[in-house]
Amino acid sequence: MSVKSEGKSLIPESYLDYPSQRLYILSLWLLCQTVKFTDFIWYISSSTDSLSTCGKWLLLDTLFVVALAFLRIPRLTYTKPSLGLIIVGFSLVDSLLFGGISLNGPGRLFGSSHGHEQLAAPPSYLRILEYVAPLSLLPASWTGARDAHLLGQHTVRMSPISTAKFNPQSSTFCLSQDSKFVWIPVLLNNTEVSALRYTHTHLLPTSGGDLKVDHVDVSGRELKTITKAHQDLLQKTRPSVTPRPDDDEYDEYDDDDTDEAADPRSNLQTTQAMVYLRISKPGIINLEHVLRYLQHSVTVVPCPRVTFVDEDKGKEESDIQCAGQRTGRELKISAFGVPPLSLRWWKSVNGNRESFLVEGINEDHNGPGQPQESSSAVVAIGKNFELQALTIPLNVPFPTPGTYHYGLEEIVDGVGNVVRAGAEGFGSSAEHSTTRSFRILTKPSVSFAHCSLERPTSLLIGSEANIGIRAAEADSLDGPWEVAVSYAPPTDEPSGKLRPWSKVLKTQVDKKDLSFAAGAPGQYTINSLRGKYCTGTVLSPSVCKVVERPRPSAEIEWKRIHECSGDTGVSASLILRGTPPFQVFYRVQRDDEPPREYSKTFSHSRGELSVQPERSGHYIFTFVRMNDANYRRVDLQGPTIEQIIHPLASADFADSSPGNRGRTVISSCSGSTIDVDVNLRGTGPWNLEVQVIGPQDSDTLHFNSIETQKKKLSIPIPPSIAQDGGNFEVNLVSVEDAYKCKRTISVPAVTVNVRRSKPTARFYGSPEERIVSITENEHASLPLRLTGDGPWHIRYKERGTNKVSTARLFDPNDAIQVDRTGVYELLEVKDAQCPGTVDKEQRTFTVKMIAKPEASLTAESQANSDFVAMNRSYVLKSVCEGVSEHVDLDLRGRPPFQIVYNIAQANGQGGTRIIDQPTMNSIQPRTRFQLHTSTPGRMFYEVKQLGDSTYPLEKNPDAAPRWDRLLFEQQVFRRPSAHFKNRNRMSYCLNDNFVPLEVSSSDGMVVLEGNPPFTLTLSIKNVIASNVQVLAVQVPANVWKVDLPTYTFHSIGPHRITIDSVTDSSNCAQSILDPLLSSIWVDVAETAAIIPFDHKTDLCVGEVSQFQLEGIPPWTVGYKVNGKTYTKEVKTSPFSLVQQTAGDFAVNSIAHQQQMCKASVTDLKFTVHPLPSAQVGHGKKIYQDIHEGDQAEIVFTLVGEPPFTFTYQRSEPTPKKGGKPGRVLETHTVSRVASHEYSIFSALEGTWTITSISDKYCRYPPVQQELGAEKQKR
Predict the structure, then answer these.
(1) Are strands 435-441 and 402-412 parallel, antiparallel or unpaired?
(2) Residue 33 bridge partners (DSSP)
(3) Does domain 760-849 have CATH number 2.60.40?
């Protein structure tokens, strides 16, 4: 549905914006749909005629759509076709809802089918349509549910005895302060009230002692108005059903609860009705003059009420108090009503609810805890209805903090009226309430957090300390709190410097704790605590002591450290004051070098510090600052010491790798000496004493006047080890510096490992064994033989390249792994200690590659093919489909061979599709390859994988690269063939040429397969004349529609067209023709004709006409209905038609052979008369109640051409609100009625209906001449 945005809205946007216009129009539409839904509910619940309702909504919906189009509101503006569709949619929905259209079920689907057709127009109902229109949409007047020709019924009933019952449920009634009246029901049985009288007796006597009585008359119209007002009030005020808070607590008092809002009309019988009296004054109501009545009187008194009365109600401080402030409260309850009264109330303490009941309350009642006996009050009710206003005290205790709720639930007066709390009449002002609530707060308490006299808070000089106050118990409703704090300076503080003070601190919103900053030492005290409602308690610790911490300091004493060579360092003794731990920073400067800063941490107040530099020089030692637990980086004005320091001489081994057990190991492979590096410290030159320890002896060596701190010592190898090898140790014994200060050295010795045999390396095997062949992607293992101590490091390379490879081996019989072909050469070897030599005779190893198998066409096959370099394919000679063909392949490799190849076929779209992937085995180097010629098309053959004994396919599953694959192709020509696309019979008229009749039809189309052009040979046989004619046709394409303009059909009857042979341009033999699709039939016919079975000229709507058709089906019949032309296709003969439209009907043409051979018809003309109809009670449902001895007039209305004959029947009365029809009691037929209206009179009870009617021409329901006739709308 398209929406237009053109044009401007009828209502300007300046007056009303477009969204508001759309909102208003949508609201109007929703209102209309709501009213429509109400009408639909009323329609389905009643049996009245709904045609007027359907017409009303058809008109309203149409006017709504037209008005919407006229307003031209943006986004709600539709095109004219769309508006038409909307109107049609609304009409369809309205007709379905209100009976304008009904759905016929398939119950009438089963009728006999005799091959007849129905040609008619739709407006009138025909009973015969019930057999031919299952599951279709028909007007409601056509269905059995509502017959448009036989309408109405007249029901006569005898009136029963009428009664009236006053207050049928024996309810009690009372007038509240807010309500103006009460509703008293009157139950009517089998009557409608035209007037009603009742008396109203006042409850209280007059000054003369008499009771005043008023007589009131109410008309029937007033009763209906009052009853309608009561129904509207119930709809507005009906409460939702919700469970009471204390439904789980049951007692017998609950059984007296009644729902005054319940509607007694819901349980009425069909003969009963309910009306109401509206009473606005208290008194006794007696019902009079309503035929017969029951329960004469009803007492109406003012409704009871109860409320709390408290002078402090509404004041916030009166409902909130502190725990212990007041032990309880006294509440006052005001009650009003006819005694004795019963009160139900409840209390809830911290969510725990309890209910209480007090009965027998009257003017002598002293409180809810002392109920009075109510028997005397009940007796007094019968004599006097005096109202009482009572004030009842209620004491409520508050033992624990929390939330207390008190509520009045309901009150019952002496008459039995029950009024629930909060109902109408209780009021909602602050002075008159039904609930009271109290909040009892917990008293708050505070104390200092993390501070007391025993654990004071530290205060640093020049800063402030944060002191926290913690609330132990506090109610958030009581906040914020005010805390009174005072300050007292220390007693030893000089007077005048610090002064005492007091201040009030206030907590923040939603926070209970607070803190403040203390900037002076002394004692801080919490004096008091006060909240919004309560005075709090001060807990311990209530005093916080703040102590000022002094800055740290140190006493330092320097000492010199003196040894044989002189001063070697300094030491310091420190006495530290402050809060440990301490960190002391000192500075060391040597000669003119930049000073360096160091630090040391002490955990106690006394410490020692020693500094002994490793280098000689002039040193200055200074302490600069210190830290303790409270202060950071406090400057120290400590003493400074200057000293010239000469460190003691020392020596150790350098640049040695550690061996087993932490010793240093040095290896020697050749020579008589070994070099050992040592590091010297102190003041040079140095004299060094070294000891060499061999397996059998030891020797001491002296190295004098060593000038440098790093010295390489040449140590001779002991003679017992120099020749055969072995191990010995080198130890440092002592060192002497320039001051002749000699020190003994204790450092780990150096172990020297002396070897006299070198490691060797060679490839294993004879020259022939050092040649190995591998396949592609295979690794070769080159065996080695190694001597020496592992691990070994081997360097080797492949000859012809500059790349040198290394290998680390652990086994003397290890091997080198390679994956490339070539000659590999060993370059050098080295074991764990010494370099070695490579055997020159066995230093090389040769690796060769085994070639992969290959396949190619033999020379003979290549000679019979063309090579296409673009795709590296061999194009074989073309062959015809089914001809055996092969090629020979040459295979190179090691047999046996396995060949996996793809067979593909061109798909006609520039690509190929694989049709097979077989595997072929061969043990010879030449094999024959069979080609596939069973399927026509372009065939491609590709050798995908080739395996032999060296490269088996299971170990080499990867396919060969496409550029290395053998590829050849061949064109296989299809054998020519021809067949008809379908076997449909073709129809021609006499003397027609054999040319196509319809271009779009596939009848007579020949499909040819092969390579065009084709030569097609056809034979045409006239079966009746036994004449055969053979024709040859040249066809340039693969599809040809039979077109033989030179052939003419000269006789009627069947003709057979057969394909005899076909050839194409490939010169291949013809394939076998399909005998089922190689021939078709052509029917040659004369002109069609239509003949009626009878020659009647006057017909009735719904009557069946039968015709005989001559020719070949299907036929096309042309006809006119009231001047309008129609056509209909008929497939069988004879056929029947049902007349459905009154007026003129004529058949004007008939054709067969798909509207060929058409003939005009001039003598088939009929006059169709409408069906008569009859109505009882002018088509309506009439219900008439008569008394015994009276008569009712039943009127019949007849429509049609007189004279009439009709049949009516009387059955048992039917109810107004639906129900099944009653049993038929009598049936009568009346004939020769010349007028259009006929009346009868009857004093009998029953329902009169018409079952049939006949006029001059027609009868309804019509007599079915052919029950099995198949009927269809035209």
Answers:
(1) antiparallel
(2) none
(3) yes
Q: Is 552 exposed, middle or buried (0-12, 13-18, 19+ CB in 10 A)?
A: buried
In the chain, the amino acid numbered 254 is D
Other C-beta atoms within 10 Å of 766: how many? Answer: 8
- Asked if 481 and 531 count as a contact pair (C-beta separation under 8 A), the reply is yes
Maximum distance among all Cα pairs of the chain, rounded to whole angstroms: 172
Asked if 437 contacts 374 with a C-beta cutoff of 8 angstroms, the reply is no
CATH number of 445-549: 2.60.40.2030
649-756: CATH topology is Immunoglobulin-like (2.60.40)
Closest CA to 96 of 137, 59, 133, 60: 137
CATH class of this structure's domain 854-973: mainly beta
Distance CA 47, CA 708 (A): 132
Would you say the CATH fold of 854-973 matches that of 445-549?
Answer: yes
> Quick check: 647 and 614 in contact, CB under 8 A?
yes
State how far the Cα of 508 lies from the Cα of 427, in Å rounded to an integer: 41
3-state secondary structure 886-930: EEEEEEECCCCEEEEEEEEEECCCCCEEEEECCEEEECCCEEEEE
Instruction: Tell me if 148 sits within 8 A of 51, measured CB to CB.
Output: no
CA-based nearest residue to 715, from 734, 684, 694:
694
Q: What ranges in 993-1120 are assigned the alpha helix state H?
A: none
> Under CATH, which number does the domain 977-1085 receive?
2.60.40
80-97 and 51-71 helices cross at what angle (nearest 10)? Answer: 160
Q: What is the pLDDT of residue 1187?
A: 67
Q: Half-sphere exposure of residue 552, counting CA atoms within 13 Å on the CB side?
A: 27
Assign residue 788 a region: left if phi > 0, alpha if psi is -120 to 50, beta otherwise?
Answer: left
List pLDDT tens digits, range 203-250.
Answer: 777 777 777 888 888 877 788 888 888 888 887 766 544 444 444 444
Q: How is residue 609 written in tokens? A: 């510090």
Give the Cβ contact number of residue 496 at 10 Å: 6
Does domain 551-648 sit in CATH 2.60.40.10?
yes
Of 492, 485, 563, nearest in space to 530 by CA: 485
**d(Cα 587, Cα 589) in Å, to the nearest integer?**
7
Is residue 1065 within 8 Å of 1012, Cβ to Cβ? yes
On whether the CB atoms of residues 948 and 855 are closer than 8 A, the answer is: no
Q: How far is CA 742 from CA 360, 651, 687, 703, 718, in A?
A: 124, 12, 9, 14, 28
- As a whole number of angstroms, the distance between CA 1085 and CA 1049 comes to 10
Tens-place pLDDT, residues 334-393: 888 888 888 888 989 888 898 888 887 877 544 444 333 333 333 333 445 677 888 888
- Angstrom distance (rounded) from CA 423 to CA 417: 13
d(CA 407, CA 958): 92
Per-residue pLDDT, 1175: 93
The mean per-residue pLDDT over the stretch 440-463 comes to: 89
Domain ranges of the chain: 18-98, 166-204+214-225+270-301, 305-311+318-362+386-441, 445-549, 551-648, 649-756, 760-849, 854-973, 977-1085
Cβ neighbours for 1026, distance < 8 A, ≥ 6 positions apart: none
Architecture of the domain spanning 305-311+318-362+386-441: Sandwich (2.60)
